Amino acid sequence: MITCMATLKALGNRLKELRDKHDLTQEEFGAIAGFSQKHYQQIESGNKKQIWLETVERLAAAYGLEAWQILAPTFPSKTKLAKKPKSSKIHNKKLKPTRKKRTRLS
Questions:
Q1: Where in the sequence is the domain holding 61, given as residue range(s)?
Q2: What CA dihedral angle connects 8, 9, 14 and 20, to 10 degrees?
Q3: Domain presence at residue 58
Q4: How far apart are CA 18 and CA 8, in angstroms?
Q5: For the purposes of burial, counting CB atoms within 10 Å of the CB of 93, is it exposed (0-12), middle (13-18) or buried (19 or more)?
Q6: Within a domain: residue 98?
Q7: CB-based contacts of 102: which residues, under 8 Å, 6+ apart?
Q8: pTM (predicted TM-score)
Q9: Tens of pLDDT along 49-76?
Q10: Number of separate domains in the chain
């Protein structure tokens, strides 16, 4: 079990960097790793007071990494998503066409 707050905060920062690199939402990555968006958000933000090593292994495996690689001080150079992300509400959001206001010429 990991309980050191500095380690948990560093893990959260690394997860955010990786998620941003792969252009994923928290919802999308949570689904890939097998967590709810809320649970994943708590881990990424550092709000979890403790997490199991198995959790870190699942998070790392979702990026094709080992647990030690996601916890290492250097950013992993090669990462590959374990699964294709399901589309989230954010990435599926269709923009409504905007109407142009007509101006009258007098």
A1: 5-92
A2: 120
A3: yes
A4: 15
A5: exposed
A6: no
A7: none
A8: 0.74
A9: 899 999 999 999 999 999 999 999 888 8
A10: 1
